[in-house]
Task: structure prediction
Amino acid sequence: MTGGRYQSFEPVAESYDRTRVIPDKAREEIARVVAREARLAGGGLFLDAGVGTGRLAVPLARRHPGQVVGVDIAPAMLARVGDKDGAAGLSLVQGDLQRLPFAAGTFQAAMMVHILHLIEQWPLVLHEAKRVLTPAGGVLFLGVEQGGRSRLVDFYYERARARRLLAPSVGSASLAPVVAALRRPTYSGGFGASVSQLSTPSLHWERVVPVSQTFDALASRTYSQMWGIPDAAHAELLSELTDYAARTFRGDAPTETLASRLILHAVRF
Ligand SMILES: C[S@@+](CC[C@H](N)C(=O)[O-])C[C@H]1O[C@@H](n2cnc3c(N)ncnc32)[C@H](O)[C@@H]1O
Result:
């Protein structure tokens, strides 16, 4: 199978860390849970497939006695890993998750957080993950953030969706079809994998976010579903959003409190 369409984050690399914030404490906790579940205490190679700016791989590299390897298609995202504290334990490779440049059985564990909605041929990405994991005890973590949606984002998305301006996901819109394909037996074209959602009550966080910051993120079309919206339509939506914000939020510097959590599945092929 050859690769299909995907969404590189090259155009939003500069703003990514500002607009997709997970507080340090939560990132440390995610690294702790992943390291424990993957049994990384003894070392070994760990793959962050779609590493982005390293917001999750860097804390993992700080606590992992082995080596963490991050792959991403977007050089500008990889460049942002830069000199983050802990980045020394992280090796970066520019590459396509549909054709990983690694030999079979290389990694003890891997993770993909917020990846499969961006890649049309997401089953191919899963086949590649399976191939590069060690058959003995290799584990893949699939993660998505839930919640954390600002009322401003909801308003913009609802209006854009009503006008059929919001692009459907290039890849899988949610993890449900992915989990179903992973669990389906191989004789029916699935992966025959075991998938368990980790019970992680610690993986939740709250952030107080200035409304102006969310407005700026929307204005600069930071979210991938907005990238195809024509300029004129985007300007109209922003004008409606300005009115909505004025009606909804009071005070000189209004904020919203956004509650999020990370859903993590452990996949064993
Ligand atoms: C939403 S970001 C997630 C980054 C990171 N996992 C995190 O949670 O911060 C998705 C990343 O996937 C990368 N990506 C998209 N398609 C890809 C592909 N075919 N191969 C490798 N990386 C890809 C994008 O460039 C982007 O950096």
